[in-house]
Design a protein that fits this description.
It is a single-pass type II membrane protein. There is one protein chain. The protein contains 27 helices and 7 strands. By secondary structure, the chain is mostly helical. Bound molecules: 2-acetamido-2-deoxy-beta-D-glucopyranose (4 copies).
Length: 647
């Protein structure tokens, strides 16, 4: 099938071989390294493939608990080492010295709370604690100034997709998150109160006074928290947006127009067309609270004043071990300078001619995506789900064809974000400057300038499918992992690993467009309930019902992921087999499994996905070719009779 594609794909791979400085590796030996060959492949393949996998102490200190987090930990180590040691003065990457200056300033120099309080003073809010004058505190200006630096104040202002049209971004006003206070947690509350006291002492207050005031600050924050019902776990509830004018009438006490005037200074905007999604219950409660005459200005103003250093976690990391401090400083770079950090990362991974190598890799990924689409289209053309139902078959095909793949652009260092400040030796100043810049950029997205490439996040390795945009997005971190940046000495191994790694990831995301959620959205990402007739939905559900069987724990919760896992690997495998002259299925299955070595983080509660071992084993159990390859008997664990397959 489709010979031109496979030739082009191979060509792209060969192109990379020529360009890349990375030495090619013996991938078979690497596969063996992680394996525990004593475990029978037909009993528990995850154990067979991953029984000897482990992360080093250094990597575990940086969060490695499975293969993916190990990739991230490796990337972090590489960045940390280079930021601490490399001399970038003669680097071709002009952003690198800036990154190093910022990183080193935060790791080495002392920080001071005064930088943060001075920044807030410049808002003109007139804080009594600083100004000695209790009458004229202007909380509206203080609240806006906090947000200019990315911090939350009396509310949390976010820039999010519009609930109706995903290509428009609008403001959301939600209740604050009480990160440091916690909820009904005495220990957290105690620690938080002590933290606020330390900040007050640093501002020159006497111990007894600081203790009293800190207690009042916590009490004030708890009165804010009481406005939020206990069960508001969901952060973004889809609600109809309000106009600013409408909200001004409903909530005159909050002075929203003045707030946005202060916040959006320097940006051209029209109050008449501003749309806001708000948590109305919270804002009404807040309005009542602010109208309370017993509310003490010293308490509220000081609470707002300390939200800024608290947002930047001033002093919270002072006692931590070095690796945590390094990670924290790197985390700041990731948040505030993702573009330049991503560029540095690709330079470290790909060598000096990284731009060229990166562009080639992107082309290669695009070709792989094309191949997978072709293969999937073939399947949609033939599936029984649309038997005698040409209209729905065409709908599905149109949606597949319209699906886009968004990959990150490497930020051009000579044409970076306008007005990126020059980094100096003061960590606090650097943090504030960058935050100010970033918030402005974010606000501009509300008034035009929508995002046109995938996030440049250099430390994220999770691809995702956006239902409402019908597109797959790959973050930059993923492109720096061995999934893409690995060259095997045997060409056939490279192909098998690429197909079972990135090929599988892309296929998994593609299948999400046609899972129980996906089938309600059309080619342009509009919600289109009922676009499929009952007949097709019934046929789909009958087949998908297999994924709700006994083999799956928490099946109803994880069903869409289980569909994407199995159907995705099926698609990746078929694409690989039709594109490769001599496919090596053993390598393909091992490589797939090994990308899921280790266990999910215990606390992370990723309840939408089953545990790695269960995922891998259930997926492979659905693929007859797996049983054939490893000669599993009809009664073995890994070869269940009830094999699930929709497409
Ligand atoms: C790199 O440049 C900076 C500023 O120009 C200078 O302070 C630093 O000493 C230089 N580093 C080396 C190793 O030359
Ligand atoms: C605050 O007021 C007190 C008494 O009114 C005065 O002694 C003190 O100097 C003032 N402090 C500042 C910073 O203005
Ligand atoms: C699927 O069917 C359509 C319509 O018959 C055809 O144009 C298209 O080429 C087919 N796709 C593949 C990959 O065979
Ligand atoms: C099922 O989900 C619950 C919560 O969503 C989780 O605590 C539990 O560990 C899950 N069980 C398995 C076997 O994954």
């Amino acid at each position: 099938m489709e010979l031109p594609f496979s030739i082009a794909w191979l060509g792209a791979i060969l192109g990379i071989v020529l360009l890349r400085l990375v030495a090619s590796q013996d991938c078979q030996r690497q596969l063996e390294n992680d394996m525990d060959a004593k475990e029978a492949p037909c009993m528990d393949f995850h154990q067979h493939a991953c029984g000897n996998w482990h992360a080093s102490t250094l990597q575990r200190n940086l969060g490695a608990h499975d293969m993916r987090s190990q990739w991230v930990a490796r990337l972090k180590l590489q960045l940390i080492q280079s930021l601490e040691q490399a001399d970038f003065n003669s680097s071709s990457n002009s952003a690198a010295p800036q990154l190093a200056t910022f990183y080193r300033s935060c790791l080495q120099s002392g920080q001071s709370i005064r930088t943060y309080t001075d920044a807030l003073s410049r808002s003109g809010a007139n804080f009594p604690l600083l100004a000695n004058n209790t009458d004229s505190f202007d909380w509206v200006l203080a609240n806006a100034a906090l947000r200019e630096y990315g911090a939350q104040g009396l509310w949390r202002l976010l820039v999010q997709d519009n609930w109706q049209s995903a290509d428009q971004r609008i403001f959301y006003i939600l209740s604050p998150k009480f990160y440091l206070l916690g909820r009904d947690d005495d220990l957290m509350e105690f620690l938080y109160e002590r933290y606020l006291k330390i900040l007050l002492l640093e501002l020159g207050m006497r111990v007894r006074k600081a203790a009293l005031l800190a207690a009042k600050l916590v009490a004030f924050e708890k009165s804010l928290q009481k406005l939020v019902p206990n069960d508001v776990a969901q952060t973004l509830v889809l609600r109809k947006p309000h106009s600013l004018r409408d909200l001004e009438l409903q909530l005159p006490g909050l002075q929203l127009k003045r707030y946005f005037d202060a916040l959006l200074e320097g940006i051209v905007w029209d109050p008449a067309s501003l749309l806001l999604v708000v948590d109305l219950d919270y804002l009404q409660g807040l309005q009542r609270l602010l109208a309370d005459r017993t509310l003490d200005a010293m308490t509220m103003s000081t609470w707002l004043l300390l939200q800024l250093p608290a947002h930047f976690e001033l002093r919270l990391h002072d006692d931590e071990k070095l690796s945590s401090q390094q990670e924290h400083s790197l985390e700041q770079l990731r948040k505030l300078m993702p573009g330049p950090l991503g560029r540095l990362q690709m330079q470290l991974v790909l060598g000096e001619s990284y731009q060229e190598a990166y562009d080639t890799a992107i082309q290669q990924i695009a070709l792989l995506f094309q191949d997978l689409k072709q293969q999937f289209e073939l399947v949609l053309n033939e599936t029984e789900v649309f038997h005698d139902d040409l209209a729905t078959r065409n709908l599905a095909r149109d949606k597949l064809r319209a699906m886009r793949l968004l990959t990150p652009r490497l930020q051009d260092p000579n044409n970076g974000a306008p007005g990126t400040p020059l980094m100096g030796g003061n960590c606090d100043e650097n943090l504030l400057q960058l935050s100010l810049n970033q918030a402005k950029l974010e606000f501009r997205q509300v008034f035009g300038e929508p995002a046109s490439s995938a996030p440049a996040d250099p430390l994220s390795v999770n691809a995702y499918y956006r239902l409402k945009l019908n597109r797959i997005e790959l973050p930059l971190g993923l492109l720096a992992t061995p999934l893409i940046q690995q060259q095997c000495s045997q060409e056939a191994d490279t192909m098998a690993k690429l197909s079972a790694g990135l090929g599988y990831i892309l296929a998994h995301e593609m299948v999400h467009a046609f899972d129980f959620d996906g089938l309600n959205y059309d080619a342009s990402g509009q919600l289109a309930n009922g676009q499929w007739p009952a007949r097709a939905i019934i046929r789909f559900s009958l087949r998908a019902g297999c994924y709700l069987g006994d083999r799956y724990s928490n099946a109803t919760l994880t069903v869409n992921e289980n569909i994407a896992d199995s159907e995705g690997l099926r698609l990746a495998l078929d694409t690989y087999r039709s594109r490769s002259a001599a496919p090596n299925l053993r390598t393909f299955f091992l490589a797939f499994a090994q990308n899921w070595c280790g266990t999910v983080a215990s606390a992370a509660g990723s309840s939408l996905h089953a545990a790695h071992a269960e995922r891998v084993n259930n997926v492979l159990g659905n693929i007859p070719e797996f049983g054939d390859t490893f000669q599993c008997t009809a009664t073995s664990q890994m070869n269940p009779v009830d094999k699930c397959r929709i497409w």
